[in-house]
Amino acid sequence: MSRISMVRERLLSPVGLHAIGFGVLAVATILLGVRVGLDWRATSSSNVDAVASRKAELRTLEIQTTPLRGLDAKVALSRQQIDDFYQKRVPPSYSAILEQLGVLSAKGPVRLTRVQYTQALGAGDLTEIRMDAGLSGDYGAIMRFVNGLERSQTFFVVRAMALTGQQSGTVNLRLQFSTWLRPADAAASGLPVDGATSSVPDAADNTPAGEGR
Questions:
Q1: Continuous segment of H or E residues that includes residue 116
Q2: What distance in Å separates the CA atoms of residue 87 and residue 83, rounded to the nearest whole number?
Q3: What's the rounded Cα separation, in Å, for the pair 199 and 131?
Q4: Looking at residue 46, what is its pLDDT?
Q5: Distance of alpha carbon 57 from the chain centroid
Q6: Is the bond preceding 183 in cis, omega lying within 30 degrees of 0?
Q7: pLDDT tens-digit readout, 116-150
Q8: What pLDDT does residue 166 have?
Q9: Average pLDDT over residues 90-98
Q10: Could you tell me where the DSSP H helices lie in the chain?
Q11: How far is 78 from 76, CA to CA, in rounded Å?
């Protein structure tokens, strides 16, 4: 029997076939293990990237939401500050405005020769009260009145002022300024609204129409 025939018989024998099958299975197992290892490595890398991406997103959200932390407390504080401002600096009525003007004119001392009131249309929580006044007195007294108006506890804003004449040491000044009332207080005064004016002839009669008459 030739050598080739003997090898063929051994390979085709049950032992040979088992050996061949085992070898094929071993190679397949190795290939499968390599493939699983590569897939696991790719999956692990993908998971690491996903975790890093999530962490970056979380950090970005934390930075974006930082200004919103404690927002409810900030809103409550702002409302309290607004209420305090209204309580301390917004006059409660026209009579309070007139009283403060009387105090400032006496400190000058200056004479309020006239005061015209214009109640602007209300917008929001306050209604603007515009005043156009004529003042007379010496220059120092006029400046004391204007400075007192700007520093008053009652909130006044000077819009414009212009000298209208000067003689014998007396200065005549036209002064335009504003303050604000709550809409209910402004409506209760009875003054015209939006461009119409109520005129007061002099400081001795500084009561707006509809109040104290």
A1: strand 111-119
A2: 6
A3: 10
A4: 65
A5: 27
A6: no
A7: 888 887 666 788 899 999 999 998 899 999 999 99
A8: 76
A9: 86
A10: 3-12, 14-65, 71-89, 94-107, 139-151, 183-189
A11: 5
